[in-house]
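Troubleshooting: if your tokenizer reports a length mismatch, compare your output against this known-good record of 90 residues.
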Amino acid sequence: MEGLITTLLSSRVESSELRERFIFKIIPMVNPDGVVIGNYRTNLSGNDVNRKWDFPTQTIHPEVFHIKRKLVEDKKEVRFFLDLHAHSRK
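Known-good structure output:
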């Protein structure tokens, strides 16, 4: 994610052209409540947010529910959706 953001904000010709042509909406972390307690994929309710995109509920999967709602609202303008995953080790 950091590399993507750095590249998009760089002074490179390609980066500048991308910024001119597209609007980027970046959500850096979908499940911060789960990560803070040591989970990579699950939220506080113990649900794997990466597996709930088909039928998310507002109460159990609010992260996915609201992101998906926004994507559906903006569907005529959405040209590309990228879901990045990373795991770090200290």
